[in-house]
Amino acid sequence: MPQGTAKDELCLLWRGLRRRTNRIRPFKLASAVNLERIHMKLTVALPGRIAVAACLPFAAALLFAAPPGHHVAGPTVNPSYMDTTVVPGNNFYKYACGDWEKNAKIPADRVEVSPGEPLYNEHQKRLDTLILDAAKDNPAAGTAARKVVDLYNSYMNESAVEAQGVKPLEPHLRSIAEIHNRKQLARALGLTLRADEDALNMTNFHSMNLFGLWVAPGFSDSAHYTAYLMQGGIAMPDREYYLSDADAMKKIRAKYVQHVEKMFTLAGFDHVAQRAARVIALEHAIAQVQWSLADNNDIHKANNPWSMKDFAKKAPGLDWAAYFHAAGLERQKQFIVWQPSAVIGESALVASQPVDTWKDWLAFHVIESYGSVLPKPFAEEEFDFYGKELGGASEQSPRWQRAVGFVSGYLGDDLGQLYVKRYFPPEVKAQVEAMVTNLIAVYRKRIEALTWMTPSTKKEAVAKLDSLYVGVGYGETWHDYSNYEVKPDDLFGNVWRGRLAKYERNRALLGKVVDKKEWQMAPQTINAVNLPLQNALNFPAAILEPPYFDPKAPAAANYGSIGAVIGHEISHTFDSEGSAFDAQGRVRNWWTPEDFAHFKAETAKLVAQYDAYKVFPDLSLNGRQTLAENLADVAGLDAALDAYHQSLEGKPAPQMDGFTGDQQFFIAFAQSWAVKMRDAALRDEVLTDTHSPGPWRALTVRNVNAWYGAFDVKPDEKLYLAPKDRVQIW
């Protein structure tokens, strides 16, 4: 049986934190598409315990140390990026980044490029060097370093992968072939359940398995871990790939038919055209009952507690007793079913579709999930479809880079301990913590000064700030991977056991007391995340380096870059999702009706604002899908500007290159979002990400009053918003 979805493990290389990390969009490597199929959320989000999170500039914030011999200063305005022939009020992104975009070229193995490209490469080299140095020390068996080295070697050992051929697949395909009735089918489906989704921290709503499990604090009881059952079942990134009438999507679906047939052929199946047709028809039916990404982000629709008995009653079709027994969850008394209509619809499909169709579906999904760690023809076919067709890239990244992401995905904290020891000095941690304290103080002051909010709601909002846990650099404890057996010559087995080990670790948490300070990202993750059920923030070490943050850089640029990210994450505490949670992380309405009505009216304005942005002739941004991130961008930028002004301590802001302090702040913010993407990747992001693409995130400035004065923006200019139309909540 497929024991986990490929779309859940390597977020550090491919938008896995796209949705997921929840709050920062990770850097996209073309080959990461394949890696993502091995561990979906690279971020970084993306990854074992990695996330996809906030809103990291430089396309995932490629914020790493400079190449040897090349000094990289901290954030600063770069005049060479700018196209000053553009009027700021007509297109601020082009004004700040136009010349850079004209001259930028996307490497063949990438689906996008940003000014941080060399720094990203250096970061990868750092991690690779850490692993190779650990190998030279010949660490003892059973140590964390030994496990890191062995896992890396298993990925790099291509000859072992080729020698094994398809043998690792065979026992799993045989077990599928032995299914003869629906009870056996239910058991087989239950065996596939994995902890491969994360609705709030990573905004990851994708599992290739029938359903996905998320273990997290409960909506009503945030002090204990509970089980969330999530929709799943499709191999392409989102339901829109199956349902959209756009010509681009129709072409992708035609290519997908060929891809499914090819994967069946490589695995030695007969009648591949008929099998592919059945699989795709079933996935299409599943996509029809799945929720959209916009609906998935509505917390109030997701709070659906079901007892074990409710499943057979509310969602007939699947033998739930057999399913949960196989998944090891037969003693779990209650689940929160995030998308009830999808669960009902998928359960009905288990009953209505022939068992042989489900067997083909299971067989294809296990082949697809492990294609990237099978012999070269499988891996190349995976890349041809996901990297070339969906991403637009022409080459895979080097294998060693993929190996680094692979290790970060499965052993994030073990590698992270090596990273922190070498690259994250205590003084940087202290400086960033001081900056966080400054921004929280600004938020408190802004909330207390709100004229539209009643005292009772303000009291609750301030309580959230007072109890907010902010982790900087790395966690206070390290994740334990002792249940994960790693073998240096068994890549397929390492992936299989890694997914199973993660599932077992998560399952063991059910009913236990929540660690409110638990981290969801590894230190080497270039990202940041807000954890609403814990009322906590994580800022990993890798994002706290030049050029994103540097204590020697001008304050205006530091606050326009890392300050805006910190402000963004704090703001998630009060965005369209975060506003549903109280200071303890419980889902509870702490608003007066009048206050919430004002909040909803303002958010509706922002939805309309982003709905109006057209990315392609046939595709616009989805303001509801991206609402939470857009709100956080607006509030975070406003708060970062206040914090910058406060940091001046009454002194005049120093000018640089002819720009005032406020101009530097806004230009630095826009330049942090400089990115050039392949059309296929941009389309994918618009459809499947809760974040707006970088060029449109830069237009957040339209809602900040100070931007208009800084650049003398006139009412007849394209980006001008009348004061009443500017969204200003916090």
Shape: globular
Beta-strand proportion = 5-15%
Q: Estimate the mean pLDDT confidence.
A: 88
Radius of gyration: 24 Å
Q: Strand order across the biggest sheet? A: 2-3-5-4
Describe it for me?
- This protein is mainly alpha-helical.
- The chain contains 31 helices and 11 strands.
- The chain has a 4-stranded mixed β-sheet with strand order 2-3-5-4.
- Strand 7 and strand 8 (536-540) form a beta hairpin.
- Helix 25 (555-571) packs across helix 28.
- The longest helix has 23 residues, at 426-448.
- The chain starts with 15 loop residues before the first helix and ends in a 20-residue tail after the last helix.
Keywords for this structure?
31 helices, globular, 11 strands, 730 residues, mainly alpha, 4-stranded mixed β-sheet, disordered N terminus, single chain, 3-stranded mixed β-sheet
Q: What's a concise summary of this model?
A:
This protein has 730 residues and is mostly helical. The chain has 31 helices and eleven strands.
Write the layout of secondary structure elements.
Blueprint: H1 16-19, H2 32-36, H3 57-61, H4 92-103, E1 112-113, H5 117-136, H6 144-156, H7 158-164, H8 170-177, H9 182-191, E2 211-217, E3 225-231, H10 240-243, H11 247-266, H12 272-289, H13 293-296, H14 299-302, E4 305-307, H15 308-314, H16 320-326, E5 334-337, H17 340-352, H18 355-370, H19 376-389, H20 399-410, H21 412-423, H22 426-448, H23 455-467, E6 469-473, H24 491-509, E7 529-531, E8 536-540, H25 555-571, H26 593-611, E9 614-616, E10 619-620, H27 627-647, H28 661-671, E11 676-677, H29 679-688, H30 694-697, H31 705-710
Parallel strand pairs: 3-5, 6-8
Antiparallel strand pairs: 1-11, 2-3, 4-5, 7-8, 9-10
Helix pairs in contact: 4-28, 5-6, 5-20, 6-20, 8-18, 9-16, 11-12, 11-19, 12-17, 12-18, 20-21, 22-23, 22-25, 22-27, 25-27, 25-28
